[in-house]
Amino acid sequence: MTSAHRVVVLAIDGVYPFELGIPSRVFGAAGGRYEVLTCSVDGRPVRTNSDFSIAVEHGPEALRTADTVVIPPFVTNPLPREVPQAVVQALASVAPGTRLVSICSGAFVLAAAGLLKGRPATTHWVVADLFRASFPQVALDPDVLFVDDGDVLTSAGAASGLDVCLHIIRKDHGSAVANQVARMCVVPPWREGGQAQYIQHPVPEATGSGTATARQWALENLHEPMTLTDLAEHSHMSLRTFARRFTEEVGMSPGRWLIQQRVDRARHLLETTDLPVDEIAGQVGFAGGTSLREHLHAAIGVSPLAYRRTFRGALTPTH
């Protein structure tokens, strides 16, 4: 039996307790596939941003043994453009090729250490402008829940730490394991949309109805052709009003949302069935296999065959 993948969480003074606990809670629910350790830069207790401190069991030497390092957010004013020397020394002990993960403003640590230079990344939308001004060499995308750039993953605020940890499990062990972990943690295995749906906007005036009914109808009929007019009719709105309300409620346009749902449904079928690509395309409402290939590649950068090989191959074959 292979040894468990070691995840080491680096707790920095001022750490947010919720995000600090996410890796242990999520990876710990994966049936022994991961071992999670928590360390500080000096092995001493760590202040949290709340009214208590946390005693950790490990010092920076744990980072040398990590397969994955996670950096949760912490309170500091201002957020760091330069990494404290103790953190620099701790991160220097991480072996080359170790997977690095940040949650929320933990991305500031990776960027200040020069580990995000020339890479795509994200962070909490509230500090996105500050991040962009501080690290212009990083390709910041503030609209997504997380960014996977291979050996470096960054995530947005708070609960997006759950999203990125589940995504890592999905990559490592396939959707069946990730879905089971999500059920154990009572969270969705995959959240639609990005940070745009959580950014503060003026509250729209109530009209007595929303677009949820149209979205539910669309999800039940993805295999059918549908237009913006069809969706608007199911919400009893004009096209213009529907498009505006939909974007306010969901954080993206109806057309983009519909494509995303079709791609997500196609991914599920690629993972869980042996159906041909053309048949899957028909079941999710794409015009054909070519259209599915184009949309899947645009969404996640791989072909249906490569996607199926990755996620079906990660699962234990059934007979």
TrEMBL record:
Gene3D superfamilies according to UniProt: 3.40.50.880, Homeodomain-like
Name under which the protein is recorded: Helix-turn-helix domain-containing protein
Classification via SUPFAM superfamilies: Class I glutamine amidotransferase-like, Homeodomain-like
Superkingdom of origin organism: Bacteria
Keywords linked to the UniProt accession: Transcription, Transcription regulation
UniProt lineage: Bacteria, Bacillati, Actinomycetota, Actinomycetes, Kitasatosporales
UniProt cross-references to SMART domains, sorted A to Z: HTH_ARAC
Domain called HTH araC/xylS-type: residue spans: 212-310
One Pfam family matching this protein: HTH_18
Key word Transcription regulation present: yes
Matching InterPro entries: Class_I_gatase-like, DJ-1/PfpI, Homeodomain-like_sf, HTH_AraC, INH-QAR
Ligase keyword on record: no
